[in-house]
Amino acid sequence: MSAPTSATSEGPSRTLTNRSVDEDAIPGEDTSEVTKLFAERLQAWKHAVAYLEDYVTATEKTNHAHGKEYERVLKTVKDPLKQGHHFDQSLGGIAGMFENMRSNTQGISNQHYETAKQLKGAIVPIFDRLHTEIKNKSKELTKGAGKGSKAVDKARAQTQRHIELLGQHTATFDSHSGHMKATEDPYILQRGVNHRLNKQVQEENNNRQDLISVQNSFAQFEAHIIQTMQHGMGQFLQVMTTQAEHTKTAYGDMVGTSQRIPLDFEWNGFIKRNNTVLIDPSAPARSFSDISFPNQNHRSTQPLISGSLEKKGKIMRSYDTNYYVVTPSKFLHEFKTDDDLAKDPVPELSLYLPDCIIGAVNGQKFNVKGKDVSKGKIGGAFSMSHEIAFKAHTPQAANQWWEVIRQAAGTVTNEMPTSPVSGSDSPGATQPIHEEKQTTPLQTEGVENSSKSADNSAEPGSAVTPGSAAPTSATTAPSSATPAESGKN
């Protein structure tokens, strides 16, 4: 028996995707293609081992009936191998070994009955155990890489649906001049695409690593299969040496043929025949920053102004810093952070500005009164109007925010509103408030007195609290606010 050699082969040349600066968000490849190929190859090896197992079993039975009955042994290897295209058809491989077995079996029709018991008790179990190992390998492939492919397909389907939703509502924005629901805001939808696309890329890269691990392990597993075959055939030779000289010579030739198969012979041929399908382990993984998708930079997705503001709490009366955005769809959205990747960027608060009232600026402070429509039309119908006190980091930043909000707000007043907003309850209302004369200003305390009261009740700290937005300055399309230390007026 020759010493087993290590399996060596050149890596496949196919990459998982064509690399470019801009990549498709949803690749057109079949994620299960590699898994199917390896599953089919395992089937080929399983059938190859089954041929050997059947051969030895039939040999044992044939020893009971000698010459004529031994023709049954020949029938077990008469037909071509199942999935035979996976094996090299040239001499020196698995296909050549079976051809050699067919020719020698024809000449050993006078085997002895005494060897039947030894064949059944010692040789058949070797190939039976190998057969079981290949079956277990198939189950491992299905439960491992197979599930990873399904996870990738599911993540891609979710991303595709969100991209299509973004395309639908960006088109609605263009045709309806930006009048839409908060949940349909293209800015929100694009951030949702970012979130799902990031999860998709993680699933793709995880599946890719699983497939590379499977691919790398196959060379060693196939070497083990061939080595076990060689071992079984060696044991088979020892049993058959007690047979007649003709039988000994025939089986010696069959075993010699199997022993001469290099451990990497079939694997190298498999790599060459399938180098356009197998994954190249040296190819780089996908990167979220290199991917583009339709309507990624549509004008409806670009905020009119964004940054951190301090909002006065209803109970503790202290200021809390959050990330705020005014979108072209005339929504003022509140987020805990501007990070799209950590979690799905769903607004904590959404105000439809044409249905809101904004008071005057007093230093760093201004108030906005309206209904939270972040839960959609149904939820917004049951929500109450709230007067929200905002505080910018600097008076200049406050003026920038106030100017952008004023242009979209339904009512601008010098008084601080204290009663529910008149007009529509939701962004879907057909008659939003656009001028001061449509709503009588509410008789409340002046802006200056209200601002001083807010300062006395709770003085905000200068440090940004954990979980607050990363940016520290408000940015608008025409200009940017200069960040300043928050806390004091």
Question: What can you see in these coordinates?
Answer:
The protein has 489 residues and is an alpha+beta fold. The protein has 2 domains: 33-290, Substrate Binding Domain Of Dnak, Chain:A, Domain 2 (Up-down Bundle), CATH 1.20.1270; 303-476, Pleckstrin-homology domain (PH domain)/Phosphotyrosine-binding domain (PTB) (PH-domain like). It is built from 10 helices and 9 strands. A hairpin with a 4-residue loop joins strand 2 and strand 3 (331-335). The longest helix has 60 residues, at 116-175. 40% of the residues are buried. This is PH domain-containing protein. Residues 1-28, 414-489 are annotated as: Disordered. It comes from Decorospora gaudefroyi. Keywords: Phosphoprotein.
**Uncertain parts:** 1-9, 15-22, 416-489
Calculate the mean pLDDT score and round it.
Answer: 74
CATH topology annotation of the largest domain:
Substrate Binding Domain Of Dnak, Chain:A, Domain 2
Number of strands: 9
What is the CATH first-level class name of the largest domain? Mainly Alpha
Distance between the termini: 90 Å
- Cα Rg: 37 Å
Q: Which helices and strands, and how do they pair?
A:
Elements: H1 33-69, H2 71-76, H3 94-105, H4 116-175, H5 186-240, H6 245-259, H7 265-273, E1 305-312, E2 319-326, E3 331-335, E4 349-352, E5 357-358, E6 365-371, H8 376-382, E7 385-391, H9 395-408, E8 411-412, H10 447-457, E9 475-476
Parallel strand pairs: 5-8
Antiparallel strand pairs: 1-2, 1-7, 1-9, 2-3, 3-4, 5-6, 6-7
Biased composition (Polar residues): 1-19, 414-429, 439-456
Region (Disordered): 1-28, 414-489
Domain PH: 302-410
